[in-house]
Structures are given as C-alpha cells and as structure tokens.
Amino acid sequence: MTRSAHAxxxxxxxxxAGLYGFNIVFARMASFAGASGSAIVVYRVFVMLALVAAVxxxxxxxxxxxxxxxxxxxxxxxxxxxxxxxxxSSVAFxxxxxxxxxxxxYPIIIVLTNPLVEKTPLTPxxxxxxxxxxAGVCLVVGPAFTxxxxxxxxxxxxxxxxxxxxxxxxxxxxxxDVVAKVFWVQLIVLPTAILVSLVAGQLAPPSTLALAPxxxxxxxxxxxxxxxxxLLALGRIPAVAAGIIFCTEPVVASVVSALILDExxxxxxxxxxxxxxxxxxxxxxxxxRRLKNALLIPIAD
Length: 301
What we know:
Oligomer: single chain
Structural class: mainly alpha
Number of helices: 12
Mean pLDDT: 80
C-alpha cells in the first residue's frame, strides 16, 4: 500500500463518518414525523440498488464479484443489515443518547479483536487512543441512562457487533469493484430488512415516506454517500484505523443537531468532541509511523 492510497483512505473515512453523522440527524427528524427507521432502511436499499444499476450501466462497470471474496461479501452484507436494523430499532426502546453510547463501543471491539482477526499485536498506544476516543464519544452523546429496556440495549450492542464485523469484512474485499460491492451488499440487506420489518409490523407503504420527504431524502442521501465512501476507505486502510476515525460521526451529529434542531452543545460535549479529535490525530500519526516502518523493512535478496 502506498502512502497516497493510505492518506486518501483516511480522508474518505472522515468524509464517510461526516455523512453518517449528517444522516442520523435527518433520520431523527423523519421519525418525529412518523416515518419508521425500519421502513427507511428497506426503501433506501431500493434506492441504492437503482442507483448502482444506473451507474454500472452508464459507466459499463462490471457487477461481478472476485471469486475469493464471495464469502467476505456475504458476511459484509449480513453485518450491514444487522448494523442498520439493530441501531435504528434500538431507539424504540431506549433513548437515542443511550443507544449511541452502546453502539459506539464498536471501535473498542475492533481494537480488542484485531489481534485475533488480523494477527497483529495490540499496542498500548492503540488501546489508549481507542479508550480516549470512546470516552470522548460518551461525553458528546451524554450518558442519559434513564428508562432502560434490555431489548434496546441488546439491539444497540448488536448493531455495534455488526459494525465491527462489517469493518473487518469490508477491509478484506479490496479487490472487488466498489460498484459491485455496493450492489451485492444491498441485495443481501434487502430480504433481511424486509423480513425484520414484517416481523416487527413496521413495513409501512412507501407513502409513509411522504410524511417527511425532505428529511427522508437527506437521510437516504447521507447514507448512500457515507456507505460508498466507507467501502472505498476500507479498501485502503485497516479496520482499526477506520474504526477510530468513525468516532467523528456522533460529534458531527451533535454539531449538525445544534445547527438544525437548535440543540445546545454543553461544555462537556465540546470537551468530548475535543477528545475525539485528539484521538483521531493521534491515530493518524500512529498509522503514518506504522506505514513508514513497513515501507522501510528491507527486502531480502
């Protein structure tokens, strides 16, 4: 991996996290108007499939999967479905802030399981960066642990585990074209999302999206852009590096909420955002040092 590819991966990850943070604010606005989260998940998949098919047709891009990556793409699709459905469904049982705190344990999960998955050593520096980032996230979203329901906690944690699996699987599908990757992942997500919505009794007709057309459009648009950038980023940087960078998502969500929903950022939230920013900068520096050391390893004659 070249330094330029690695640097572009970091930028893409930051852009993806920003779009996801932007997306969740409008998802809240849509839910306030009566558009359920599971319904949005189902219909955004249809939108993504239509867009991918159009791009593939116009750009003449192949939708074929690399044979060796088929298993990882299947796992990526299942994990993506688990992430979206669990996280959006958890807020029906617990406050959004609590769901966010539980959901954003995934960077820690990625860091702790990385030695087992990728066979790389767990360094004290990396563990410290992940801990600082997680602490910052907790301060940003606010630990409002009231009105807890075990179902909401289980769903939020399920979304966290799904996200960790998603990051590892996406990082192992670097050879499959991103257009094909998006197509097959969403094709796997679709039946899962429909089944869950039917079981939960929340598969509303498309007309329900008209309850908040602008918010729904922004939610779907933010997710589409964020998902594409995420897959591009994970083809260039390790899951651990991306996981920590994605801690910027709740920070962006809080800032956008303050601007759009007139929510006031407290000094504690600002301090949390500063911690996340510091952790990301430290993570980037660690990644640059790791990459530099890898490039400097002499090759045997």
